[in-house]
Structure formats: C-alpha cells, structure tokens
C-alpha cells in the first residue's frame, strides 16, 4: 500500500548533499532525500546544480561538507587557475 501511494503521489525531495558518498541507512533520511539509483535522481526539478558555480577543484575536490556541496557544483575537471606555486629549492 505505501509503495503504490508513493508512486501515484510523488513528493518533491531534495538531493542528498553526500550523493554517492552517503552512508546513512535511516529510513527517514532515505524518504526525505534522493540518492543515486532512485528513479527521480535524474529529474531536472530536483537538480539545483544549474544555479551553482563550479568548484575550483572540480571533480578532484575531496571536501564532503554539505554546505560546500550545496554551494558549488563538481562536474568539470580541476581549473587551471588554482595551480600551486613552484617549489623553491634550498641553497
């Protein structure tokens, strides 16, 4: 009964900020958030990444902070602007 009511009356859910890195198994969390593999994961209504600027580290970013993930998208390779300074050798 509950499964059929979910299909007929879809509730707009937000994407989990951790995405594929989410380890939470709480049923409430799984109901409130969309995860990769859910049927509505690729729904454009739930995707807010179009409005976010690209993270300077792109797909190489290791940060998992939900605030960072909400603020930046991580779809492109690392920007060439953020290259490190060359090392100076000791004399």
UniProtKB/TrEMBL annotation:
Residues 13-38, 52-77 form the PBZ-type domain. Signal peptide: none annotated. It comes from the Eukaryota. GO terms for molecular function: 3'-5' exonuclease activity; DNA-(apurinic or apyrimidinic site) endonuclease activity. One of its GO terms (cellular component) is nucleus. Pfam families: zf-CCHH (PF10283). Residues 78-91 have a biased composition (Polar residues). Residues 29-91 are annotated as: Disordered. Residues 35-54, 61-74 have a biased composition (Basic and acidic residues). InterPro entries: APLF, APLF_PBZ. GO terms for biological process: double-strand break repair. This is PBZ-type domain-containing protein.
